[in-house]
Design brief:
Nucleotidyltransferase, domain 5
Length: about 350
């Protein structure tokens, strides 16, 4: 009896976790609600006999729960909630969701989210800090420009938020309340920019500890910041078996649609010649990774070198500029993956179709 497998589904919330446990025959053997505390969770796991398999959805507490549970259970699956269609059908409650998660785990129908590398945890947090502060900086700049534009004051370029011309721009605001509001935005911008510079130094200092940083920086137009983001988000390149899997992770994979692909003609099975419809790039991806390669490709088109030559060759073949940049971004992603796996520096030979 102790050798049976227990499938545990956890519907995790801020203060409570709804838990459902089923056996290897699909029979519900326990359902309860516990506090979102390490002691309560470990008491539950230790009280289950046999082999324990656990699943929970990716969320705010998933990284903490992964580190807590992975050494204590036989199998842990942090699943992608976007692909759990069964949870959206029928009645919905915490208990029902936990039971359905356990059933999906037993049936092997869950799509796992990668949580398997702790060696880059420090860099991951430093990259998150830097990217969030960068987003806050962009948001404050947009608010400042919106303030001026709302009063018909043209504010293109960088002068409106730079320190050198700040007083000139404040004087254009006639109302005292507007000047105070703008000054507070400037003060907040200065504080965030200072924190962003400090976060950048900390991130780059940590990233230089990894050999992959030097490898990725050897690729034209990929500097230390983009290399640090790649290392933190990818962690281990070998978890992507092919470049197409990496393209999908980076949001550079093409989504296609087809139907009635085969038909019988005079008793023989034939494949239809109906063209496959392309519906753009995949939507389920890591946005930071996509931003790295999508921003690198346009920069490479203006810098003399092999990447620009690759781009111009695509244009000479009649490919539209936007598609040529997408092709270059996909090529850069493939090159980054193969160099990272091999531990080699960039060489123009990898721009050939056979190499990457």
């Amino acid at each position: 009896m102790n050798s049976t497998i227990k499938y545990v589904g956890m519907d995790v919330h801020q203060s409570a976790i709804s838990v459902a446990v089923i056996d290897d025959e699909g029979k519900l053997i326990m359902q309860s609600v516990i506090a979102t505390h390490a002691a309560a969770i470990l008491d539950l796991i230790h009280g289950l006999r046999g082999t324990v398999h656990v699943t929970l959805e990716e969320g705010t507490q998933s990284a903490w729960l992964y580190d807590l549970l992975v050494p204590r259970v036989a199998r842990l699956v942090v699943c992608n909630p976007r692909k759990n269609a069964l949870l959206k059908s029928g009645n919905k409650s915490d208990q029902i969701d936990a039971r359905k998660l356990a059933e999906l785990l037993r049936a092997g129908l869950l799509s796992p989210v990668y949580h398997g590398e702790n060696s880059t945890r420090t860099l991951q947090e430093l990259v998150r800090s830097y990217t969030h502060l960068t987003q806050d900086t962009t948001r404050l700049i947009a608010r400042l420009k919106a303030l001026y534009r709302s009063h018909a004051i043209a504010c293109a370029g960088e002068k409106p938020y730079g320190k050198r011309h700040r007083q000139e721009w404040l004087q254009q605001l006639q109302q005292a309340g507007l000047q105070v509001r703008a000054q507070r935005l400037y003060d907040e911008l200065d504080a965030v920019q200072g924190l962003r510079r400090a976060a950048k130094r900390e991130m780059l200092g940590e990233a230089h500890k990894y050999q992959a940083c030097q490898i990725l920086c050897s690729i034209p137009c990929i500097g230390p910041v983009r290399a640090a983001i790649l290392i933190a988000r990818v962690q281990v390149p070998n978890r992507f078996r092919t470049k197409r899997q990496f393209w999908a992770y980076c949001g550079l994979a093409l989504e296609t649609r087809t139907s009635a692909e085969y038909r019988f003609v005079q008793g023989q099975l034939q494949r239809s010649k109906k063209p496959v419809f392309i519906r753009g790039l995949n939507l389920n991806h890591n946005h930071d990774r996509k931003n790295v390669f999508k921003a690198t490709a346009p920069a490479a088109t203006f810098r003399p070198g092999p990447l620009r030559e690759f781009y111009e060759q695509r244009l000479a073949k009649g490919i539209k500029p936007e598609m040529a940049r997408l092709t270059l971004a996909r090529k850069l992603a493939a090159i980054a993956l193969i160099l990272w796996k091999k531990g080699e520096s960039f060489d123009a030979k990898y721009l050939t179709a056979q190499a990457a």
